[in-house]
Amino acid sequence: MIPGEVCLTLDWRNVPAESPADIVAQIGALFEPGSSATVEVTPQKFSAYTGLERILPSVFPPFLLAENHPFLSVAHTTLVEVLGPG
To answer: The whole model's pTM is what?
Structure first.
């Protein structure tokens, strides 16, 4: 038996210079020309603790912190305290 349809979900971690459209194009390029394959960013329902619900694209923009950002120093110190040095 050959299935008529296959659905695949990818958890893609993109870098700041990479847009969702770039990712869709990269994955779409993997399929043979003329195939019926489609690549899309599907919507997902998000719920807040207040009960507010919204259906939004499953896109979470990346961010970049400077090496000397205070958050990184605090995170490093905390991880060393909890897990021990490297």
So the answer is: 0.61
